[in-house]
Design a protein that fits this description.
With about 675 residues, the chain is α+β, with helices and mostly antiparallel strands. Helix content is about 25%, strand content about 20%. Among the domains are: about 120 residues, Phosphorylase Kinase, domain 1; about 220 residues, paralog of FGE (formylglycine-generating enzyme); about 50 residues, no CATH class. It is built from 17 helices and 27 strands. Strand 1 and strand 2 form a beta hairpin. The longest helix is centred in the first third of the chain and has 20 residues. The two termini are about 55 Å apart. The N terminus is likely disordered.
């Protein structure tokens, strides 16, 4: 579908659009002014707000008089699904959803962003029929980033092609052009089980369909979008499709996708970079399990990180294998997946059954964080969006760009399965754990007064600074010293422990059988494989649902400027069940702070540590997450902050991570 704000030329073929009966109709506060495109499920109009002249796109479910009632119900269900998918999705390379509803006559509609650009097909033609390697790679990287996001939400697009990708001029991205993915009208929702296949119909543009999609629309998963994206990349680089099809017929294209090997990129372009040729070949693998995942493509194009091998003795170019299969095995296209599946490598370290067992055995108060690979950090456009968000509510002096730039230079990282505290460590849990330690707590008076800063007496006599008891009018420590004994302040039992040093946080975690999470682990829990903007998703934080920006003049200054009991902020909850990663109090992590985050080549289980001899009270450590006094952009999962090891502030606490072997 083409959803462009550019006017169509008036020709004999399009003159009827001027007499379109919907032009002039009011949809809410918007007046339809012209029809601008059609797609697999609907017709799109440009609409203008009756007061402020704001322009949007309005998509209607296209009526079909010949369709039977059951199929019509399926079409309407798909349309509702598209509205639902767009409503929850927020990504720089997806169109922005505004609203959905129906007219008095029952006509369904979706209101969404009007994209001021051209289709990728038109863009390629304007560039001379093919794109340079940097530009093609950049546009594919952006598309793959959006695919990784929607795949993580259980959505497969199933109709990627040069007409469903719009190119918009945008200097905020390095290529100078931003991709926008359109038309989720035939998307498959993997988490929905009901029948979605229209009888007697083929879903998807056949020239860009995957082999498995050609054979059965029901069997596709995220890999089908990767195959389509590989076809697009091949075409961007060469100006030609990877298959030579004499007749432009659906049957010929289906036969090519299922039975014929794609041409090598180097066959058409001898100077093609070898790594790019290899990437294209792997994306066009006939077997869906052997194609790379979207986030792996992003990492490869961004940083050159090697794609994980998924084949046995077959290489990424399956020409010989499929030619042999075609000769030796009848109906090779239908059995080729089974033939090759015996050589596949495991995709994950743990099976779904193993993960289910681990989840059931999670220690009390923790949840399982499954093995996660993600692109840590933020892209330039994400950094620009965060900076803009800050400056909308503060002066530029209050929004130091160098702070957000700490997230720059994103890279692919991995975290194995681990358990994480559901909430921040509370005052009650901290004190109970502290008093169970072998070491004594030093509570001796200082200058004749009760101590404010509490230390642990080590076995060798050293004293380790642990926490500060400062408290004033409901703010500060939840512990107090009464008659020479530490206790929790009444009413503070479930509040997070704050004003605690990095060493104290680590010691408490170790006593509990764990450790502070690494920065990678923390970000994996907060963002997931889909790289959520906020721990809960893409929706902006609500003052009643997330504890953030409650200081004087803040966005939520009507709320008390102090932490709340852990696990009570309803919106600040990850899909896995972890609370308060976006707000309440910031949290220590195990790593020493390094800016930028060290390059670690697809690292797994990595954390940046300081040699023991170099540790001092002024050693800087990373802290993650937002707090009741921090503004909205700090609540993002990618944000990074730092504090010295002995910094004890009222908005800094911690939580613990545990190995999967913990009981």
């Amino acid at each position: 579908m083409e959803v462009s704000s550019k006017p169509a030329e008036m020709t004999d073929a399009t003159a009827h659009l001027a007499q379109d009966p919907r032009v002039g109709v009011m949809v809410g506060n918007y007046r339809l002014v012209r029809r601008i495109g059609e797609g697999g499920m609907g017709t799109v109009y440009e609409a203008v707000h009756r007061e402020n002249e704001n322009r949007i796109a309005v998509k209607f479910l296209r009526p079909d008089a010949d369709v039977d009632p059951d199929s019509e119900a399926i079409r309407r269900k798909r349309f509702h699904d598209e509205a639902s998918a767009l409503a929850e999705a927020r990504h720089p390379n997806l169109v922005t959803f505004f609203d959905a509803g129906d007219l008095p006559d029952g006509q369904l509609y979706i209101m969404m962003e009007l994209v001021d650009g051209t289709t990728l097909r038109e863009f390629v033609a304007q560039q001379g029929g093919r794109l340079s390697v940097p530009l093609a790679s950049g546009l594919i990287r952006q598309t793959a980033s959006a695919l990784a996001y929607i795949h993580s939400r259980g959505i497969v697009h199933r109709d990627l092609n040069l007409r469903n990708l719009m190119v918009v001029k945008d200097e905020a991205v390095r290529e100078g052009w931003r991709i926008k993915i359109l038309d989720f009208g035939i998307a498959k929702f993997l988490n929905h089980q009901e029948q979605r296949t229209l009888s007697q119909s083929q879903l998807g543009t056949v020239r860009y369909m995957s082999p498995e999609q050609c054979e059965s629309a029901k069997s596709v998963d995220a890999s089908t979008d990767i195959y389509s994206l590989g076809l697009i990349l091949f075409e961007l680089l060469t100006g030609q499709p990877p298959y030579q099809v004499a007749e432009d017929s659906a049957a010929k294209w289906i036969d090519a996708h299922i039975n014929r090997p794609p041409r090598s990129l180097k066959k058409l372009w001898t100077d093609a970079p070898s790594q790019l040729a290899k990437l294209v070949a792997e994306m066009l693998d006939k077997h869906p399990d052997f194609r790379p995942k979207a986030d792996e493509i992003v990492a490869h194009l961004e940083s050159g990180i090697k794609l994980p091998g998924r084949r046995g003795f077959f290489g990424p170019d399956q020409t010989l294998a499929f030619l042999l299969a075609s000769v030796l095995i009848p109906n090779a296209g239908a059995v080729s997946y089974e033939l090759l599946s015996r050589y596949r490598k495991p995709m994950d370290e743990l099976s779904a059954a193993q993960l289910a067992v681990l989840a059931r055995n999670a220690p009390d108060g923790t949840v399982l964080i499954p093995p996660t690979s993600l692109f840590k950090g933020s892209y330039p456009e994400e950094l620009a969006a965060a900076q803009k968000d800050c400056e909308q509510r503060n002066t530029r002096d209050q929004c130091d760009p160098t702070l957000i730039q700490r997230e720059a230079q994103p890279q692919l990282v991995s975290a194995g399965a681990f358990y994480l505290d559901k909430t921040e460590v509370t005052n009650e849990l901290f004190l109970r754990t502290l008093l169970s330690m072998q070491e004594a707590v030093d509570l001796r008076p200082v200058n004749g007064k009760p101590p404010r800063q509490i230390r642990l007496i080590e076995v060798d006599g050293r004293r380790t600074l642990m926490f500060d008891l400062w408290h004033d009018q409901g703010k500060g420590s939840g512990l107090e010293l009464v008659d020479g004994q530490l206790r929790v302040r009444p009413g503070f039992e479930s509040l997070p422990m704050v004003q605690v040093t990095h060493m104290a946080a680590q010691r408490i975690c170790e006593k509990r059988g764990g450790t502070l999470p690494s920065e990678i682990q923390w970000e994996a829990a907060a963002r997931g494989r889909e790289r959520r903007v906020y721990p809960w998703g893409a929706k902006l934080p609500d003052c009643a649902g997330v504890v953030f920006d409650r200081g004087s003049g803040g966005l939520c200054n009507g709320f008390p400027p102090q932490p709340v009991p852990v696990g009570t902020a309803a919106q600040d909850l990850t899909p896995e069940g972890v609370y308060d990663l976006g707000g309440n109090v910031m949290e220590w992590v195990r790593d020493s702070f390094m800016n930028p985050f060290p390059r670690c080549g697809g690292c797994k289980g990595f954390f940046a540590e300081v040699a023991p001899i170099a540790i001092s009270p002024t050693t800087g450590y990373s802290i993650k997450g937002g707090s009741y006094v921090m503004s909205r952009e700090v609540a993002r999962g990618a944000s990074r902050s730092t504090a010295v090891a002995q910094q004890m502030t009222p908005n800094l606490g911690f939580r613990c991570a545990f190995p999967v072997a913990s009981k």
